[in-house]
Amino acid sequence: MGSDSSSEDDYNRKIEVVFDSETARRRKSSFVLTDQPRVDKSRRPHAERAKSQCLVHQIVEKTKVESELEQIDEVEPSVATESIDREPMLGKEENRPVESRLLTKKQLSDMAISVRALAKKLGNLKVRLKIRAIFLLTKIHDKTLIVKTREVARWLLSRDRSVPYIVYVQDILQENPSFDAAGLVAEDPSYGERLKYWNVNLARRRPHTFDFVITLGGDGTVLYASWLFQRVVPPVLSFALGSLGFLTKFDFDSYQTTLSQAIKDGVTISLRLRFEGTVMRSQKRHDDADHRDIVEELIGEEADDRKTHVPDGTFEILNDIVVDRGPNPTMSTIELFGDEEHLTTVQADGICVATPTGSTAYNLAAGGSLCHPENPVILVTAICAHTLSFRPIILPDTIVLRLGVPYDARSNSWASFDGRERIELFPGDYVTISASRYPFANVMPPGRRSEDWVNSISRTLQWNSRQRQKAFVEWDGENNETKEANGKNPQSDDNRQDKKRGGQGHPGWHQE
User: How far apart are CA 228 and CA 314, in angstroms?
Assistant: First the structure.
């Protein structure tokens, strides 16, 4: 540097930025990195599944997100082998995907950016789908909807259609008298070959079987469609036959026109962000200390020979994940973590972590913010918090949240995923929440999507609905000054004008 002071100042002003390697920092108790990662291979040697006609399936597979990720195991090899042997062969044609919570910060960001780019690409296109297999979903306990489902199935199976569609309905309808499958086949024997039945396992393990989904019901039926397809979701077109209608965008009375235009002219697809939620169970060890601290276990570095938690079920959700006190009379104590930081301790009836789509559901009832569904964010709202200072917060979708029950909690907590699968959380257990690589493909009506969302909350919630405030009657100052100069009383003239308009003058004046 020499002795020049100016050169020394220039040197001191320079800042060197050093980036950590991807594997330098990992979320504790959510990662177990193996030297030779194991990937579940197909049990059918050299068997390749048929290519799906669904455009969303094809595009998601071409994003190549999974091929760039590290394969990570969280369970011991012996346990993993036993679980594979017990699992049925159905659906084992694909490699096991890497779950979002197992990614490094950079990998999670890259995945989120890929999904956003895909959403933007589809949102600006009108996509003509190659549809052959159609999945019909309705409320099987509503007789009127079953009759309407039969009507739609009959229309799709008709010989008048340009393509001989394969129509799947729920297996329970096969013997339902209102659906009358036998009578439908009796009308045309060719219907028998193309009318098929789906069950939960087929929808969950082989989503590539279906090219298009049609739901008849309300928002709850759409949520059930998301629950059935736990991985890639075919495009979902929803007819409004329920109470609300945030997700059901089409009128059933014109279903023939809607479906004909969708098949012939194409559809606009909105990809809705979904969350991946995983229940992590605390592992008991003989050498445990008398007092364990969940905060110490979930942040910082973890020893290779000491794994504190193991996964116990992963769910893809569209609306929200709620951890609450359940049937317990006392409030819940929940530790909230974001990536490697302990954010806060929440003492409340519970905590709701919602997607932008779910912002109008439990999140809104708990005092959370409305959020446009295209925002890549995570909404965190306390349910009846025991402090007045806990305000709802909005976090980026590149963060991994963890909601844990401390070891010294007075009672257990309960976790629900889209209102389903109520799972009890014991002291030491926690739930991880992260953005999913499998968004929900929702078919939208033609037009401006932002305007449609505003109209939906205005129609459904009566958002900002009130009688418009009346305008003031302008007072002409120059005319009044002229009248005063000419010796006229402007108030008298104004009063006469009010009488001409049928008014009563100023409310403080006494009229005789």
Answer: 13
